[in-house]
Amino acid sequence: MTGGEVKHAHYVGHVRRLGGWDARVAFTGDLGDAGLAAERARLWPGEATVAGWTPADPDVLFVAGTDWRYLEAAGFGATDHPRINLLQHLRHADPGTELWTCLAHPAVRICVSDEVADAVRATGRARGPVLAIPNGTELRPWDWRAPAANAAWRARRRGIVVVGYKRRELAAALARRLGGTPRTVLTTFLERAAFLDLLRGTRVAVCLPRAREGFYLPALEAMACGCLVVTLDCVGNRGFCRDGENCMVAPPDAGALADATVRAVGLSEAQRERLLAAAAETVATHSLAAECARFRALLADVDELWAEARAPAAAGPPRAATPAAPRMRNRDGAAPQAPLVDFMVVGAQKCGTTALASFLGQHPEIGMAEPKEAHLFDDPDYRAWWTRAGIDARYARCFGHCPGARLHGEATPVYLYFADTAAALVRYNPALKVIVLLRDPAERAVSHYHMQRSRGAERRPLWLALLLEPFVLLADREPRGQDSPTRARGYRARGRYGRQLGDLYRSFPRDRVLVLRQSELLEEHDAVLRRVFEFLGADPDVRVPAARVFAGGPRPRHRLAKWLLRLTYLADSARLRRLGVRL
Q: Of 197, 210, 217, 183, whose CA–CA distance to 94 is shortest?
């Protein structure tokens, strides 16, 4: 194995946990670094290693880094054993590099983040399915709710640790900026157990990844160890490092980093708890168990996926690669038909999505899914390697009532809420258009609460439900479960539009996202629908009469609760304004 050994060890561990599988490791190169060599010796006990591979019928090869060299040198390049190729770097998408040339080998490719997967697909070179299994960690979330947790956090021996071995010059410049502030600066590799012990005694971890990391695991590990994390924008971390929510993201400038670090040190107890709670939730969703479950599902389908990788490539010159248009092909190598679904109303819940879907369905050119919420991309059984044809086969049953429609859409409001859904939507249809409806988040939260009360799913008074919400969500180990607390009781969380739109814009260009206010739909019905029809490419002159789709009964006003809720949304509202949206 070459490089990235911790993650390789995780995958070997996944195999050992599965009945009927065994794992053996053959090393193919000298690491050339004493620290990494010691780490290799710790990770790989002697009984797990073999001198080389002897082909046997049921074998599956797990190939990492440049291990393709070994297969070719040993004469095994043409065997028909399924290959699973772990990709941890964006360098795989850099033209002319050795990693880039390796994409021509048939393989089932696992990428450690959606960002790596999108970049690799966009090259148009990858032979075989390209799947994303976000990196997981074996570390449990730091229990910020434990008795005396705040006192224990304040008692940590180290105020600041700068993890700077990948950005040594920036780390040194930051240290100078911090002056006499107590800090530890890491500019060389530290054995992992010692590194984690260091983090567990640290209050603020400044993590400095390279700009094009595939997934910078130390930032996630620092969150797991209970550190306040200050970090840089890094392509592979955009799915889990959310500025102002679970960490602070600063520009790659020593002055800006120093300012962010000082702000982190000076956070109030309430601000600190909010960041640590969100960080703990992030760690919980990136568990090694979740990674293992996704890998297990892949292994169950490995023969089918390998057959797709071995299928002959389509004839003709390769097309230009663009990030917005990842390559997708059918099993026979032919270009697929256009996706069935052209647009989606992705949220937010309790913001008028049902009314908008009803109005859109009355346009003669538009067919809306029945039921309105297809819940395909948030389904617990959804897999990143589902083909477009397979997804459309699932969608087909939703559109049997509108065979003459030119445009097809669905409206599942939870898509906006789940951070990784946007990347899945782009993988399905790179040209997809997205509509977002928003309203006052405090009003939305109260409306959501009353909906749950009316269903008998919530019995607590509003104030108690809001107070307990962070604890309820943090304890949710299966947020995508059909009746999970994350879906049902995220009263405040589902109104953090700034974070949700930020996630959406990382996958979609602005010109394919239309953001509307619920009040506009109510007060300027005809004008808003005309905008929507023009956005979708439907006849804008069609008039759909206004109607009240749902009329709720009288409810308490909860004036104090709404006022307090609006205070909790101040930071997110500022983030929303920076995205150009005002409510």
A: 210
CB 219 within 8 A of CB 209: yes
As a whole number of angstroms, the distance between CA 513 and CA 425 comes to 13
CA–CA distances in Å: residue 484 to residues 10, 66, 210, 376, 473:
28, 42, 36, 16, 9
Rounded to the nearest integer, the mean pLDDT of the chain is: 86
Q: Is the pLDDT of residue 522 over 50?
A: yes
What secondary structure letter does DSSP report for 313? P
Q: Which CATH number fits domain 343-578: 3.40.640.10, 3.40.1110.10, 1.10.418.10, 3.40.50.300?
A: 3.40.50.300
Helix (H) or strand (E) holding 222: helix 217-224
- What are the tokens at 572? 């997110």
pLDDT score at 162: 96
For residue 148, is it left (φ>0), alpha (ψ between -120 and 50) or beta?
left
Write out the residue limits of the CATH 3.40.50.300 domain(s) in the chain: 343-578
Which CATH superfamily includes the segment(s) 149-285? Glycogen Phosphorylase B; (3.40.50.2000)
Q: CA dist 99 to 5, 7, 89, 105, Å?
A: 17, 18, 9, 11
- Within 10 angstroms of residue 45's Cβ, the number of other Cβ atoms is 9
Helix 497-507 vs helix 570-578: crossing angle, to nearest 10: 30
Contact 187, 168 (CB under 8 A): yes
User: What pLDDT is attached to residue 552?
Assistant: 57
Rounded distance between C-alpha atoms, residue 291 and residue 443, angstroms: 37
Q: Of all helices (H) and strands (E), which one includes residue 347?
A: strand 343-347
Say what the pTM is. 0.59
Exposed/middle/buried for residue 243 (C-beta within 10 Å: 0-12, 13-18, 19+): middle
Q: Residue 49 pairs with which residues in a beta bridge?
A: 25
Question: What is the tens place of the pLDDT at every residue in 236-263?
Answer: 888 889 888 899 999 999 999 999 999 9
Q: Which amino acid is at 24?
A: R
User: What does R_g of the chain's alpha carbons equal in angstroms?
Assistant: 25
Query: The sheet that has 228-232: what strands, in order across it?
Result: 184-186, 158-163, 202-207, 228-232, 248-250
Tens-digit pLDDT profile for residues 192-211: 889 999 999 999 999 999 99
Distance CA 417, CA 490 (A): 10
How far apart CA 160 and CA 204 sit, in angstroms, is 5
Please say if the pLDDT value at position 335 is more than 60: no
Q: Look at 316 and 429; give whichever has higher pLDDT.
A: 429
Of the given ranges (110-124, 318-332, 449-463), which has the lowest mean pLDDT?
Answer: 318-332
